Amino acid sequence: MTANTPSAVLHGPGLTDVRGMVLAHDAFRRVLRPVPALIREVPDGYLARVRLLADHLELVLNMLTHHHEGEDELLWPTLLARVPDELAPLVHLMESQHEGVHGMLEEVGTRLPRWRKDPTRPAGARLADRVEHLVVLLDEHMQAEEQHVLPIATRTVTQAEWDALGERGVKGIPLSKGPLIFGIFMEVGDPEVVADELAKAPAPVRLLLRLTARRAWRRYRTRLFGA
Questions:
Q1: Residue pLDDT, tens place only, 102-133
Q2: How far is 152 from 129, CA to CA, in rounded Å?
Q3: Phi, psi (deg, nearest 5) at residue 159
Q4: For residue 146, what is the DSSP state?
Q5: In which band, very low, low, confident or very high, does the pLDDT at 3 lie, cut at 50, 70 and 90?
Q6: Measured on CA atoms in the order 22, 12, 75, 195, is the torsion positive or negative?
Q7: The three-state (H, E, C) secondary structure of 178-191, written as one string
Q8: Are 74 and 18 in contact (CB under 8 A)?
Q9: What confidence tier does 40 reach under pLDDT thresholds 50, 70, 90?
Q10: For the domain bounded by 17-158, which CATH number is listed?
Q11: Domain locations in the chain as residue ranges
């Protein structure tokens, strides 16, 4: 849970539990913030390292795109229909931030295959600059959501509607990456929130994640970030 969003604001008697959104945000922060520095460190022609970082970044970009599409499809229309006056001051901010993030996602997505084909320090530096800009824009947007939007959602959206948003998000995770992603949740998340998210999965999936998630993320983290 981020310092700017007390748990009590997002969870309590009579409130919809929206803390899963903060969990997702913190996971994005964890896996994206170190990437610009990692890209800049890659020597010319180190193809295996380029491939690892490029695959990682591509996974994060796809999940971010899916995450924001879910908000646009399921969250914003519901909030605008129910509390238009309360939400009005935030609409322009959220729309402009989404446009900025989407534009930077597209730019990073365009530069990424160029770095794969031209794995040099100059190409990596250009990509890293754009990823760094994405990190800034994304963090500003996520903080604004956590501070202003989620406290409204917790008393406006039903738990069933919120869970539907979460289920849509889960569908954006490639099946083979499930243990890895949940391992990230386990590292960054409030254990109570992580347990609640795990409880939503079918029993066989819960068992699989309990057995494999931490190890999958630990191994991947070591390869990506180092010991």
A1: 999 999 999 999 999 999 999 999 999 999 99
A2: 34
A3: -65, -35
A4: I
A5: very low
A6: positive
A7: HHHHHHHHHHHCCH
A8: no
A9: very high
A10: 1.20.120.520
A11: 17-158, 173-227
